[in-house]
Amino acid sequence: MGSSAADQHWLSNKIEKRLAIHLQMTRKEASDFLKDEYGIHPHDKMVYRALKEARDRIVGSESEQYGKLRDYQFELLRSNPGSTALLEVIPIPQSPPLLSAIAQDSNNHFYTIAYAVVGSETKESWKWFLTLLQEDLGNASGLLEAMKEVMPEALHRNCVMHMWKNFINRFKDLQVRDVVWECASCSTPPEFVETMEKLKKINEEAWEYLTRFDPRVWVKAYLNHGPKVDSLTNNMCESWNAKIGKYRMKLILTMCEELRCYVMRRMTKHITLLSAYPGKLAPVQQKRLGRLIRPSNRWNAEWTGDNERKRFEVSRKTSRVDVDLMKHTCSCNMWQLTGMPCVHAIAAIRKKHDKPEDYVHKWLCMESIHLTYAHSIQPVPSEEYWHRTGYIKPNPPPIKRPIGRPKAHKRKKDPIEDLIQGDKVRKTFRITCSKCGEKGHNYKTCKGAPSNPNWKPKTRKPKHQNSSSQALVELPLSQSAPEPEAGQNTQQAAPAEQAQDTSSHAAPFSQAPIKTTKYTHSKIPAKFRPKQPIKRPPAPTTTQTQVAPPTSTSVTTTSSGGVSKETLAATTSATTGLFKFIPNSGFKNQTK
């Protein structure tokens, strides 16, 4: 009798129904499907094996897919006449490299020309790929060597982003962090030379490092004017690699077919979006031209007097450039490099009352877009409609693995990751040097010359010193009674004690004088008065007597109670506002 528990084969049969519709199903999606539909929670490893079994039945195993490659090649050539599809079976690694040729269309989008699955990225593989590419067009590791042999006249550029990452990884000084981009953005040779000399004064090692690179492959001032592109990065290839990342780990036949479908969908999308666009320029180029119109108003164009009325001198303050509308050239070199009129050329064009769109290179117009997407990828039917070639079916190539245990390669941290916050580059505060006026450092680490010849480093002002060494001061009499002198102390001590024993509770001034304390400014500020303890007279032990309140300083001290002479001597005009007479219960004021 078989077990009633769900095993791998039962799970694969249930997953197969869903996998036929959703071929990109993952292990987690399969677990959620079984949980929702059948209310079971199988182990993750069992779900993985069941999903692999179901995928092998639908898509086919690796050996089956390699056996169908020749039929797939024949079907590609039949359905897409004029295309190139070659097949060579060689040993490949577990994750085969994918060589690609990517271009940029008039709307600044990447355009896939060709791609190939190879055994390894070497000079021989690139040479084979570029040879086929050259035959079709008419004219990385090993890429430069292969291009020099196959296409010696081809133009080559370095990715400035990769150069900058290597630069900041070698030089940690914040003062020279952005110098690579400043040098690469120079549009004229004198500007580039000036920027490099400025770098040499700051950091000579960084200057020596950048001089190793040929400026013709990374500086705008020396780039070729043919492509009409001023891009300094390899963003087109990076975008392509990011899009196809989910297809590269699949089986050979599935990967090739899904790449073909992706390129077909992308081309169809661009054709649909741009077919109804009414403008003369591509949408991206029209926005780029619009951003140059307003800055051109700051330049003044003067006709030089030629017969064709095409030569102008454009100036602003002390800057002057030569603009030739017939040759489409400008002294700033940007018009020749991009094919788009620069701000100086637009000022001359508007002086002539012409439209700037008429002076844009044809490769940036919608006419070029329509020619680019005039050719589309034709559909390829599924396997049951293929024509069988009858050739020997190729076997899967053996996978080459290195000897020994695979090493765990820890990913190297990109230097730019420290500047990234989420998916954007973090914006940090940049200080400005008070010595030279540059940003990114202060005057203490500045190695440049001061912009102002009279510049002096800032000095900290001395702190304000308080008069903490003043002499000891006495508190006002309103805080405590003055200390009696030695002669009076012995004579008045007895009457004071006698008055305390027999005095009435209604006389608060009958206390013994309080000793005066002296303080310094370092302990108690002069504007605050120290709090004095309050001393109450002892509870009455004898019969209370009625005593009139003191109305003047002529009141005398009696044995039955009243105000003592010592207290009256200490009473001044300052104390009269602080003390208030509070009579006891039963007190009657005596009238004169």
For the structure shown, list the relevant keywords:
592 residues, alpha+beta, four-stranded antiparallel β-sheet, two-stranded antiparallel sheet, 7% strand
Please describe what this structure looks like.
The chain is of the alpha+beta class and 592 residues long. Among the domains are: 51 residues; 161 residues, no CATH class; 63 residues, no CATH class; 82 residues, no CATH class. It has 20 helices and ten strands. The strands form four sheets. Strands 3-4-5-6 form a four-stranded antiparallel sheet. A hairpin with a 4-residue loop joins strand 5 and strand 6. Helix 6 packs across helix 7 and helix 10 runs antiparallel to helix 11. The longest helix has 23 residues. The radius of gyration is 47 Å and the shape is extended. The termini are far apart. About 13% of the residues have low confidence.
Which helices and strands occur, and which strands form pairs?
Elements: H1 8-19, H2 27-38, H3 44-58, H4 62-67, H5 69-79, E1 98-104, E2 110-117, H6 123-137, H7 143-150, H8 160-170, H9 179-184, H10 189-202, H11 204-210, H12 235-243, H13 252-274, H14 283-296, E3 300-303, E4 311-316, E5 319-324, E6 329-330, H15 334-338, H16 343-351, H17 366-372, E7 420-421, E8 424-425, E9 473-474, H18 486-502, E10 518-519, H19 565-570, H20 573-576
Helix pairs in contact: 1-3, 2-3, 6-7, 10-11, 14-16
